Every structure is written in structure tokens, then in C-alpha cells.
Protein 1
Amino acid sequence: MGLFDIFKRQKAEQQQAVPEPERQQQEEQERQELSAGLEKTKEGLFGKLARAVAGRSKVDAEVLDSLEEILISSDVGVDTTVRIIERIEQRVAKDKYMNSSELNGILREEITALLQEAEKDGDSFGLDVKEGEPYVVMVVGVNGVGKTTTIGKLAAQLVKAGKKVYIGAADTFRAAAIDQLQVWADRAGATMIRQKMGSDPASVAFDTLKSAVANNADVVLIDTAGRLHNKVGLMNELSKIRNVMAKVIPSAPHEVMLVLDGSTGQNAFEQAKQFTQATQVTSLAITKLDGTAKGGVVIGISDQFSIPVRYIGIGEGIDQLRIFDRRQFVDALFGE
């Protein structure tokens, strides 16, 4: 059972314990918060779409050309955009005539289907965890994407869920990174294992796992250095950390989570490409979606890399790192 499953189960259990009226109120509040967090993307994407179909009675080649341009400019990505357009073309050909007012609904269905396919493809990732063995997550990503904050928020949510959490500060190249992570660990109620700046990151990971096993921890989150993603040395280092962790827990890491900054658009695609070539990334966390109109990147990256998006960041609050629900996401983009 991975982090995603832990949170899903916890949420389901919490909802069952809440009276129906209150549960509906909570769900509505969550929908509103998600919608507000994606407002800039929603305005950018669907404002353009509304203008593209204004005054048109049917979906024709010109409308599809406009839609293609809109999706690409919203950072959905060229390849994913082509797939979406081809699917819509097939439906237009099959139905012979499609009213332009139906385009939102068709687009909504196709985006949901793409995200669902990526989620299913991602089910083959991940390894079995033995009973009583810590679940180990190696967190990767370049500097500035919100990696440390994501680890802190995950740790806090896990501790709240009753889990014993250890954090390994294996980004030993920046003193600020270690100190920032310590602040989050203290705030979350997690135990952090650290060494002095400049220490061997693999050594920190090894010590963290040894301590976690000895103290019956439930989850281990390993931070890694976030130097530029095109540095070969960084990628070699990730392999070294993985190999050292496997000496303590043979199946570790059970999950490799890549954190991407949604506001960087196409640069996030390039980072995903580099990291997936260097190591087996099994899940994605996409941050900073509340401050950008580039939220379409979630759709493109999920589709192109067939890696499930597990968490999205829609604000600074500790509870604003959300479990990614594809239907809620698409609903928020298109409106209920």
C-alpha cells in the first residue's frame, strides 16, 4: 500500500464517520477550493475556447484547428493535443454532425479518459511491501519546484493519519535545504536524520533506513539534491542512493516521486523526460498550480509519460497538497 492508498483509505474512513449533510458540505468546500486553485488555467483555456466557437454552429476543421492551438498554448503538449484532436475528429466523423456547444462536453470526456488511462498504466509500478517494513519514498526534482515543501506536507498528513514518519535529508549540498526540511519535520512531528553539509547523500539515506527499521517506522521520505536535471552526476547519484537503500531494505525504494512545478509549463515536460530516463519514476506531484494558467501541463505529462499524478499543490496551506482525483480535476476545469 503506497502513500496514495494510505491517504485515499484515510479519507474514505473519515467521510464514513461524518454525517451526510456535513460530508456534502465538506465535499463542496473541497470542490470550491480546487476550482479556485485552478482558476487561472480555467480562465485561460476556456476563455479561449469560448471565443473559438462563438457564432459557430458546428465543429468543423477550422474549430478543431483553433482547439489545437488553444490546447498547445495551455501547455497540454503537442503529442497529447494531437491525440485529443484525433479522438474528437473520430467522433465528429462518426456522428456526422456535432454542435459546437457540445465541444466542451466531448473535450471533458476525452481528457478524463486520457487521465484514466495514465492512472491504469501506472498501476504496474510500485513494489510489494512486507508487513512491518517501512514504506520508502525517494523524492526527486530540481531546485525550486517545491520538493522540500511537498515532503513536509506529506509528512504532516501521514503523521496526522497515525503513521510514524522518518525523513532523510539527503540533499546535503545546500545547508538551507537541510534546515528548511528540519523545520518541516519538527512542524509535522516526524523524525529527521541528517548529517553535516557536504556529506555523502547515499550515507544519509542508508542511516535513515537503518534507523527507521530499528524504530519500526511506517514511512520513510528521502529528500534528494535538486541540482539541474541535465547534470549527469545527479542522475548517477540517484542510482547510488537507490542501491545503498536496497542494502537495508531490498525492495526500497518502493516509490520514486518526481515533483514538478506546474507553473514552468514545457520546462516541466523536459524535467520529466530527463528524470524518467535516469530512474524509474513511479508517481508525480505537480505543485504551484494555483498561481499559473499552465495547469494543462498536468494532462500532458500524465498522458505522455504514463505515470500517475498522485498529488497536486493548489496553495500554501498544509492541506492544499491534495490527492489528485482526475474527475474532480476535470470538473474544476470545466465547471460542474
Protein 2
Amino acid sequence: MKHIISPLDLSTEELNDLLELATSISKDPKKYSSVCQGKKLATLFYEPSTRTRLSFEAAMLNLGGSVLGFSDSASSSVSKGESVEDTIRVISCYADICAMRHPKEGAPMVAAQYATIPVINAGDGGHNHPTQTLTDLLTIKELKGTLSGLTLGLCGDLKFGRTVHSLINAMVRYQDNHFILISPIELKIPDYLRQEVLIDNKIPFKEVQKLEPVMPELDLLYMTRVQKERFFNEEDYIRLRDSFILDMEKMTYARHDMLVLHPLPRVNEISLEVDHDPRAVYFKQAQYGVYVRMALIMTLLGLNK
């Protein structure tokens, strides 16, 4: 039995197989409409979510399976003090596979140690968000045709942004990728990522505080919001939230084939006018998220043969 707690839980070979399956699903979804008939997905969301939770549910329903779970810890026995360990033991009796989002880093890993069904980390604190990373990889592969030889700009909240941390960990496994890290000084990537993932592996990168000068260098621009819920001090949030806003004026500096990605939800870091630019692919990205989660569910349940 395999769990997906980090993007690194899949070897590059397993990852490539998963992305190929997701591509196949995207081309003919009806072919897979009864693959999970009789199977149940439990969605345990201790933290608010729209896209991730609904895309998991859509993925399972598209496969012919069913869904149960909760979208708010207050409506579950967690409000009575039930532990993650006990919750997952019980859920293992009801479902065949589980997707868990939790504000505490490491909570899905704890659940995996007690589960008798596969556990998928749907986001844990500021740590990891592996299925968003799989979505990002599929989007890049489909629209750029490769996962290698790219210059990626990561912009906004790089300190608390778990999607950024997961994407860096995933993309360093492919050859000749370069990173440009664009953020306020207060929101730079964590030291362990800089040292252990980038410097120790001799991955080319630079850190800058302005977006416009590096736009012409980018193959991909990955925008993130400044997350209010990750700040202890509201004054810091208010001071930093408008640091980097992508608008059409900034887009004039970009290459004609540069792609703009965003894990969503968007607040104000991408102007609405950018939505009409063909380089803005974040809504396509959301659709790819359903296909990749379909592929992941099938793979973890051993239904991908």
C-alpha cells in the first residue's frame, strides 16, 4: 500500500507513468467512467478548501466511485477532541482511499502510519501540497511539451507557500531547470529549501525583489497569493499583500510563449485583465487537476493496469 505525502514519494518513473495516464484520461474521460465503481473516497478537510476538495470529489465521481467525508473540522468529531490517529482508523473502515488536508505540518504523515487505506496529502500547513504539484507538472508538460530546460519564476509568498515548496522539490529532479525567486525579503523561501534543495544540488537560481526586470527570462511564471492565514501579525500582511501584482503592463515584458500559472485562489495578485491573455493558463491548470487526481486515485488503488 502506497501513500502520497510528498511529491518525492513517487519516483521519476512512477511520476512519468502517472502523468501519461492523466494525459490519456484528459483525451478520453468517458473511457474511465466506471473504473472505480464500488470504491469510496473519504475527504477529510480540517482546513477550508474549494478547488482541492471539489477536484478530488469530481475525480472520484468521474471514475464512477462515491465520496464521503467532511469539509470543516467543526462538523466532525475533531471538535470533540478526537485525534487524527483515531479518525483515520475509523475512516479506514468506511472508505477505500482518503484525501486529507490539515493545518498542522506532518498530520497526513501521522495518519498514514495508522491507516489501512492509501492516504493522500491534500495540503499540510506550509509544508507540502503534492497533488497541486502533480497538477502543475501535468500543466507544464502538456503546454510546454517538457519538464526540463526551463526557467521558472516563482513569485509572491515563497516562505509559507506550500505549493511553491513542493514544485521546487519536484522540478529539481528534471535536467537543466533554472529558478528565479521573486518575493519581498520577508517572504523569501525557507533556508532549508535554499540550502538543501538548491545549493547542495547545484541548481541555478537567483533571488530578486522586482518582477519586471526578470520577465523576459521566464518560460513560466508561477504566481502565488500572500496568504493572510499564514501571518501572525495582520499589519505585516497588510504591508506585504500588494507587493507583487501581475497586470498587462508587466506582461508586455514577457515572451510571447511564457505561461502564467497560479494554484488559486487568486485575491488581487493577478489583474482580471490578464485572464484574457492566452498565456494565462491557471483555469486550464484547474481542469488538469481533476485529470491528475483521477490518475492518482486509480494508481493508488491499483486500477491503472
